[in-house]
Write a structure and sequence with these properties.
Structural class: alpha+beta
Order of helices and strands: HHHHHHHHEEEHEH
Number of helices: 10
Strand content: 5-15%
Largest sheet: 4 strands, antiparallel
Length: 327
């Protein structure tokens, strides 16, 4: 491929580069602001009036003792559950939306139309052009996603004690929507989307590549997450079965020799047929490797650091690619 030759920048400063970027991407800015306002209002509603109404309904239900004639506000419980699910999906969708926009509109469309070289003729070097294209969106994406993640965590915390069906902390969607990992994923989406635009130079292809890359990264983090921090191990009797609430890592049986073997999933020694199976396996107890709630922040911060490392790598590759293509 023949390298593009960028015009040599003159000493004059770039004329209102930030203002030009805002004007160019004004529709996206309006959409981002509207998304933040609507989701923020929803999360404030969720963590305030909806939690109060649903908690009151659960108190009514528990006071009835489960009798068929129990009268309680079931609609409040269902509404809380539905709004929580929709708000969680909205927060989790942000990294994919950012990656698609960065690949298609922020970078890919300009390279496809050739307007990048027009910017380089306005006393703006290619590296400075890319830095300006990424800096302002990075601030907006980090601040906006961070706000929604914080509000989601507060809304979940407000209802986790009083609402019987509240999601546990280790629920996958709740864990990511309420922690800094999603902020790091959104920032990474911006950078990998921009990199996809630079590589493919086509808006549609970069849109798909950016979103798919973020999806792959998220799945990889989900698979690795239980192993990013040392887990706790809890032993329990053959009568009890595996014991310990938290993020599961693995469980099974411990034999008399101390070896770990797979759980036959027969139900425990209180089941006659299972008791025979456990005796044949020479099992003495169950083990359960899991993460208790005290591991919440170590897991969040470790996963965030890994995702940010990917973001930094994508940024480095993007700037090297621009430098290579423009000489």
């Amino acid at each position: 491929m023949t390298a593009l030759t960028a015009p040599a920048p003159t000493p004059a400063p770039a004329p209102h580069l930030l203002r030009w970027l805002i004007r160019l991407h004004r529709p996206a800015l309006y959409i981002w602001a509207a998304l933040l306002v609507v989701t923020t209002a929803t999360l404030l509603w969720l963590g305030g009036p909806l939690v109060d109404d649903a908690a009151a309904a659960w108190r009514e239900y528990n006071a009835c003792g489960g009798t068929p004639s129990c009268v309680y506000d079931q609609d409040a419980i269902v509404l809380y559950k539905d709004v929580y699910n929709y708000a969680t999906i909205a927060v989790l969708a942000l990294p994919f939306l950012v990656a698609a926009w960065a690949g298609a509109s922020l970078i890919g469309r300009e390279l496809e139309n050739g307007t990048d070289r027009l910017a380089w003729t306005q006393s703006v070097s290619p590296a400075r052009w890319l830095a300006a294209k990424l800096a302002a969106p990075a601030v907006l994406v980090t601040a906006g996603t961070g706000l929604l993640v914080l509000l989601h965590h507060l809304a979940w915390s407000a209802g986790r004690v009083e609402i019987d069906t509240a999601k546990p902390w280790y629920d996958s969607a709740t864990f990511y929507a309420g922690g800094p990992v999603t902020v790091a994923l959104a920032l990474t989406g911006l950078l990998v989307g921009a990199l996809a635009g630079l590589v493919l130079r086509r808006s549609l292809g970069a849109l798909g590549a950016g979103a798919v890359t973020v999806a792959g990264l998220w799945l990889a983090v989900q698979q690795a997450l239980p192993h990013l921090w040392p887990s706790d191990t809890r032993l329990s009797s053959l009568q009890q079965g595996p014991w310990g609430e938290g993020m599961a890592v693995g469980h099974g049986l411990v034999t008399a020799s101390g070896d770990r073997i797979a759980d036959p999933q027969c139900g425990g020694s209180f089941v006659a047929t299972c008791k025979v199976t456990l005796e044949r396996l020479d099992a003495t107890s169950y083990y359960n490797d899991y993460h208790p709630v005290s591991h919440y922040w170590p897991l969040q911060l470790t996963a965030t650091a890994i995702v940010l490392a990917v973001a930094a790598t994508a940024a480095l590759i993007a700037f090297r690619l621009v430098r290579h293509r423009t000489g």
